[in-house]
Amino acid sequence: DRLRSRGLGDVYKRQTVYNLIHIGNARPMIVFDTVRRYMEYKGYEVNYVSNFTDVDDKIIKKANEEGVEPSVISERYIAECKKDMEGMNIKPATKNPKATEEIGGMLDMIQTLIDKGHAYPAADGTVYFRTRSFKDYGKLSHKNLDDLQGGNRSLLVSGEDQKEDPLDFVLWKPKKEGEPYWDSCWCQGRPGWHIECSVMSKRYLGEEIDIHAGGEDLIFPHHENEIAQSEAANDKPFARYWMHNAFLNIDNRKMSKSLGCLLYTSDAADEARSVD
Questions:
Q1: How far apart are the C-alpha atoms of 90 and 77, rounded to whole Å?
Q2: d(Cα 128, Cα 164) in Å, to the nearest integer?
């Protein structure tokens, strides 16, 4: 009813691009494309936003291995991802924002969080989110802060002694050799993993969105941290509904490259064509 009164639905999901997509990556694409199509069938106008994380440790590692800029890696696999999605008859998103094109918004949101007392810069320029400053932390994953504290005592001696609290997480981090970086008032560096989604969903869907989608592995800490950042910055609920797809299992075990049971979408398509 809350969606029907507005006549539209906002849906947000993310994709990191450092390799060809496998059938586990394809599962949420198919699941939430189906949700989108059903909503459109029911008469909703759907604004479907799926961002590409094009700056990431895995992208940087692969770029360094190949001796190219990270953008070469991300653009290569964005193109491959879109090709595979077209092959699976998945409708294009309304918008595919890229993290590297939204750095200004990330800097603005981080500064807002600092101004409101929810974040703080450390001596080396790293900016951390004060997890305990957000009283509802854990409401999605149903995790208790005290339990998390007890399970993370190793952080106290892991070199992260700049943190006020072991549970605080990174919003901005200093550059390392061989990494892309952007200027900020704290240091030259790049965003942490979580802040990009809060910024891009706000820009393209608004401060409060209808549906946030993703795999169940993202519930904690990624989606939990998104809620904390967004609601602390905007003083509004972040997402009305959360939808998570389960892992894809092969032979009764989670699909994994290390276990030798990883199937890329393009390979699956080739196999299907050979059968035909």
A1: 17
A2: 9
- Residue in the structure block whose two tokens are 């989606």: 223
The first and second tokens of residue 275, run together, are 């059968």
Could you read off the pLDDT tens digit of each residue along the chain, which spans 276 residues? 545 444 445 565 667 777 888 888 899 999 999 999 999 999 999 999 999 999 999 999 999 999 999 999 999 999 999 999 999 999 999 999 999 999 999 999 999 999 999 999 999 999 999 999 999 999 999 999 988 875 554 444 344 679 999 999 999 999 999 899 999 999 999 999 899 999 999 999 999 999 999 999 999 999 999 999 999 999 999 999 999 999 888 777 776 666 666 777 877 666 656 655
The dihedrals phi and psi of 187, each to the nearest 5 degrees, come to -175, 165
Separation CA 269–CA 83 (nearest Å)? 12
d(CA 134, CA 146): 14
Tokens, residue 145: 């802060």
Secondary structure element (H or E) that encloses residue 25, with its range: helix 23-41
Residues 209 and 9: their CA atoms lie apart, in Å, by 8
Residue found under tokens 């200027």: 183
CA distance 118 to 110: 9
